[in-house]
Amino acid sequence: MSNEANKQVVLAAIDDTTGCKNQVHRVLAQGDFVVTHATATFPGGQAAAFDLWQIADGKIADHWGDQESIVETTANGHTQVDGVAVINAAADTDATRRVAEETVRTILVDNDFSDLDHYLAGESYIQHNPRFADGISGLAAALGELAKSGQSLRYSDVLNVVAEGNFAYVRSVGVFAGADFVFHDLFRVADGRAVEHWDVMVPR
Description:
Strand order of the largest sheet: 5-9-8-7-6
Number of domains: 2
Distance between the termini: 32 Å
Radius of gyration: 16 Å
Structural class: alpha+beta
Strand content: 35-45%
Helix content: 25-40%
CATH class of the largest domain: Alpha Beta
């Protein structure tokens, strides 16, 4: 099935499958996988949600998903779900996938911060993680403060990468503040670097 057909399978079933009312902001597909980034509304409130879906024979065969509560005030002034939403279909999907995976593996798995400008769009880097300010200075400062307070963040393994056009999603596992976590990262890529980032991180 095509990417668009796989997306429609997911969009038709997302509310029933997750048990939430989902306002989907971004949806991308590659091969048998579809990723949705949504605001999930449930009786207790709202959360930013990432869901990864595997499609087989026109049906949902597997599903992984996590949510993080929406917060009113963020370190960067953005929400956890706003920003660019339209996929640039003319962008090189394979190149986008490489940029996203190399960014995660270098910065978050290897904890190599020696050349952040190579992977991220400098001070123009737009951050939607509510804990971090925009720009590479915001990221570096926040990671440094976390480490000082004993809440270091480190990924151990990349599980899935899904890209379409100028967007790429990476699902990983690792440790945050001494606890095992699952990490969902979505990047918008331009000119060979990540220019915008959304994420959800939850204990596992």
